[in-house]
């Protein structure tokens, strides 16, 4: 579950948009898509509202990568429909997922879907967990077991299923940004389900600002309770955290991030992973991968990749929240 504080900031920006000079013509859109909320603000030529056109594009995107749509490309692949050919959205997503999987040694893995479902965090009903079930499902997991050959997905095991939820919202953000830019919008902030990308300035002529929530181990959050606020321009930010999507059974807490190497929910100190990248699809995938890897392994990847910056919140001694951020991220924090 990716969550960063945007609602309060968007409301403030909407007010400013109404007060901006008419030549700026900022437009505000909000709604629901992919079982989550979206918020868009953009300076539009002649003040044109692109909401209807964007929603058509997002529906088209969902028909490719949503596992909640039975006839989507990814759902048909999961059902082993031999007639399905991958579309451009799916191809782009799969190739990026494969790239990130390799760079994170499989910490990011689209084939983790059966495990996510079994633990009750996916698109099917929760199973009764047992070591035997996990061992059985692990035989279907592994990004190397699925290949893109031409316009077809080829599986080693027909029971392998794909889940793009940890990367597709980021790709959808990028799609909307590209659409706005192609229609002459010079300034915009696009957010879907907490994943965000921004370009240019807001209606007040200032760089866009994004807040990062303080994790709450009760699964709650307060829009006004921020760990930090950053400037965001021509970059994307995605956040993944285990502090909101979990359940407790027999006194034990089970987080929604499943380790593809073990088949079990991760058990480490990292509470929230926020990643900056040039596009939101990349940021989205790495934010999830880092939640699997934990603080130390994630830091090594960030420090060795000039295209990534990160901000980690983790549990320190006495359950006090601690923060680590990369050098590039530090420069964006508003003091």
From TrEMBL:
GO molecular function: metal ion binding; transferase activity
Positions contributing to Mg(2+) binding: 166, 284, 288
Keyword tRNA processing annotated: no
Catalytic activity: L-threonyl-[protein] + FAD = FMN-L-threonyl-[protein] + AMP + H(+)
Pfam families with a match to the protein in the record: ApbE
Extent of the signal sequence: 1-20
Localisation: Cell inner membrane
Highest taxon above the source species: Bacteria
Obligatory cofactor(s): Mg(2+); Mn(2+)
Claim: Transferase is one of the keywords in the record: yes
Cofactor binding notes: Magnesium. Can also use manganese.
EC number per UniProt: 2.7.1.180
Keyword vocabulary terms for this entry: Cell inner membrane, Cell membrane, FAD, Flavoprotein, Lipoprotein, Magnesium, Membrane, Metal-binding, Signal, Transferase
Described purpose of this protein according to its UniProt entry: Flavin transferase that catalyzes the transfer of the FMN moiety of FAD and its covalent binding to the hydroxyl group of a threonine residue in a target flavoprotein.
Protein name in UniProt: FAD:protein FMN transferase
